[in-house]
Amino acid sequence: MTDPVTASVALGTPGPPVEADTTGDDGRPAAVPRRPRRRRLRLWIPLGVIAGYVVAGLIGPVLARYDPIATSVTDRLRPPGSRLADGSLALLGTDQVGRDLLPQIMQGARVSILVGAATLLLAGVVGAAIGILCGYLGGVVDAVLMRLADIQLAFPSILLAVFVAAVLGSSVTNVVLTLSITTWPIFARVARAQTLATKSRDFANAARTLGAGSWHIVRHCVLPAVASPLMVIATVQLGFVIVAEASLSFLSLGIPPGTPSWGTTIANGRDYLASAWWIATIPGLVLALFVVCVGVLGDELRDRSDPNLSTR
Amino acid sequence: MLRYALRRLAISALVLFGAATVVFFAMRQVDGDPAVNQLGPDADPAAVEALRREYGLDAAPVVQYVRFLQRAATFDFGDSFRLNDAATSLVLTHLTATAALAATAFTIAIVLGFALGALAATRPNGIVDRVVSVLSMLTQSLPSFWVGIMLILVFSRWLHLLPSSGAGSPAAMVMPAVTLALPLLSVVLRLVRSGLLDVLHEDYVVTARAKGLSETRVVGWHAMRNMLIPVVTVAGLEFGSLLGGAVIVETVFAWPGIGRLMTDAIAARDYSVVQACVITVAAVFIVINLVVDLLYVRLDPRVRESV
Amino acid sequence: MRSLTTRLGALALVGVLGLTACSFDSDSTTGTGDGAGTLRVANPTPVVSLNPFAANSADQPTLTVVQEVFETLVVRDNGEIAPNLAESWTNPDPLTWQFALRDDVTFADGTPLTSADAKASLQALIDGKGPLAGLWATVEEIGTPDEHTLTIRTSSALGTVLSNLTLLWIAPAAKITDSAFFDAPYGTGPFKVSSFTAGQSVELVRNDAYRGDQPKLATISYRYIPEVSGRVTALTNNEIDVTWGLPPDQLTGLRGNDALTVQSFPTYANYYIWFNSSREPFTDARVRRAMWHAVDFATISGSLFDQAGTPATGPLPEAIFGAAAQNPYPYDPAKAKQLLTEAGYPNGFTTSMMWSTGCCTNGNSFADAMISDWAKVGIVVKPEELERATWLDKLLKLDWNSTMTTGSTITGDADFTLARLYLSTAKRNGYTNPALDEILLAARAELDQDKRADLYAQAGKIVWDDAVGIFPLDLSGNVVLRTGVNGFTPTPNDLPSFAGVSLS
Questions:
Q1: Segment A271-288 mean pLDDT
Q2: Which chain C residues contact residue B46 at CB under 8 A?
Q3: ipTM
Q4: How many domains are contained in chain C?
Q5: Do A73 and C300 touch (CB under 8 A)?
Q6: In this structure, are residues A98 and A69 in contact, taking their beta carbons and an 8 Å threshold?
Q7: Does A271 contact C228 at a Cβ distance shorter than 8 Å?
Q8: pTM of the entire structure?
Q9: What does UniProt give as the signal peptide span (chain C) (predicted)?
Q10: How far is CA A311 from CA A23, A127, C96, in A?
């Protein structure tokens, strides 16, 4: 997993807030104006697809009355479009124990998106809190916490995730924890940079002169300034987190068996490449489409919300 | 500049020390005893005790930790519990394999990235540009383990063109290197594309044109040369993540690299190898970041002034 | 501008493709060039050590290689013990075994084999404190009355000496304590080690001093390929000549391939699911039997295992000395419900089953299928796939409800499995039964092999009828060879041996 945000954030010392400017690698030329209709499409198409996934993940397994526990070994490894013993149609085929892949993938969507969202929530809140704290207080707190982030960023994130997952053991909660541990510094860095930039701005100084307390300034001046870039980072990170979850599950360090996620389904299919290519292929495509949409959406939001967050 | 470098160096040493401490205690938190794992369920308790003594695990954790730090300072991480070799030499051989893979991937990403980036920049928003942009989105988003599996499916299983695993031949390098290169490829080609588009409007290019230089000299010499350093610098930064991302690729293609060594060592509770892996990878990562940062500082006057 | 960037791009593309093409060409020549006498083997598990006297003495990958290099005093041939380095043996008294060694055997370095080597090897195995050391726990004295006579004295009668000796490899006494020796060991066997990279590869070359028929192969090259798909592709693409340990679904596909031969054969290995008999609700034998009746093993093994397994007839595979057929447990959910009701769990219960990653052929699928059937009678079983180290830790602490695993009785003797795992003192599965202990200890002390077999049949019946665990399946071994690899004979210990193999 190459994570441009991690990588560029890893760039340096708690240096100038210039850092936030170097976040991202997306070099969309300012020179070429984009037509408004296309811009709208770039927002609404991915949003629509993502909404579709969320809906499928929410109600799909219910509609299909999918039971992740029930197997039907006589129906195993059926290609897409097969009729099963109970007369139902397996649109995407069945897996190695005869479970229908379509509802399994929808269930996987539920798990993957939930894990992704939970991770970003946890990492975002913790990261933002630490970042604001560091940026606002500075001094020893800043030095210590940011060194902690350095230690972490001194290690490739996926290897770190592998290490943490192995230490914690595999469970859904631990996946969220693992990925949060690898993700929080990204939020912390951005939040810190934004706080640094904001706290000395005129309106913050004005509030301070008027006798506002620290909490007031953080709440009314810093938080609003931090929130929007963090949302954008979160969107960009969602794709990476979901891929990371799938990768961990693929290494059997992520979601435990019994809870289907995209990664575990792909991992299951790896041993059946010769006889049943669809098990590994289809969930991979589904995952890829989702991540691409999240990526497009993230880029678009970044461009819209704050030109500073994009490359130049 | 020197002061900045020294400060960074001091911080790096601190970071390395922190990583060593964390890995040392974290590994000992995990369930499962290295000696039991090595001897299996039927081992005699006395044999387990003897092996624990041999591994030096009978001492108090603090004593072990001090001993570990003393030895680590001389790059001695002890012997592997699992493989009959010193942890340091295991790490070095596996790191070499990973570095070979990463270097190939890096080359592929740079060469293809420049090629595709230049192609895309020829006609912004043209057909080629759009195809390349979709391609870049895909290469960045696709999970590499899945890409690897798909490559095996197509090139090994269906076309019988490439070996699916191992490190025996140059051909075995192709699929893992390509898989590893894809995310970086997307970064490089975006940078090249946008960089080229910007640069073509810069004064010196305009001047060059005005001087009547041929388009070839303008783009090929002036524009490309000015792009090379920043792009390679940013990509160099990503080299570290290549080393990390290799763990997935190494698993899919059974490449005997550092990522697999580390995951196997974690699974076998081979403390000395895990420690050696983590510290080495962290050190390599830090050095790469440091070099790239210093390059950045040298290259970008704005940053230079701010430090 | 356009033409230039296009040209640059095209040039770079061509460069990369060219590189790729070149590197592939160079491979295809090396790949097919070494047909003359090198057997290319891909092992499914890594060879981490070539020392068969210590921690790895019962390790399948280690033994697979070591058996080509070292020999044993006796071998098991079609279930019967046969002479090998020892020509004959007697029991002067019930506590003493005396072996007459062959006098025409030399090690690969030319030094003759003597009883001192045999003594040193046994001593090394005992001192190595590995998993096989326990087999020799009652040994009191190892004697060498003359150069070609070995005596083993035990403190109590030991009926398993001959079976145990099938895993005692004889190495030169002068080298055996030198750990560097095991980087490239040699013995009296048909091959010797020329290079060894722990965890990755082993190269063997012919031992010209071998007393028997010279092997036709000049070299054997073992390479570890962990992924199933990797091994299958390597096999079909002619990168390797032989591999084993493939899941049944792969075999089904490979049987149709003209370039390959799949050999399936019975082994000493079986599947078992243990219940922790010291933990509620598995303290009740009725609950354990209900677990068995609740699963449709015939359908599951038929679909999942194809020819990779046969329904078990007892707690030990039939090929093992001392195995006996028991009364089958038919698939009967109603009976399972009834047993559960009698035991006080009319609505079932919730429990968990652990196994270690990669422990078992089609393990995850098998677990899924059983869990699905258990759910139908109200028993909710949470799957717990653990790293081996974690699994071992929990297993030995008896910190589990049920566990799935596969095991091999590598000596081919019932004692190895039954007395190791089911004695009350073993504390392996929480099951304690004094009557069973008595039978197993009596069997071990019995020198009359027919009487031993009878005792193991009784012991097997207790383990089976009390449902200490479920024994669903005896595993078949599978070796896949490329056409042109001739003369391979499988053995039930599932350690593929290539001494008799030739290439055409």
A1: 88
A2: 129
A3: 0.84
A4: 1
A5: yes
A6: no
A7: yes
A8: 0.85
A9: 1-23
A10: 7, 22, 84
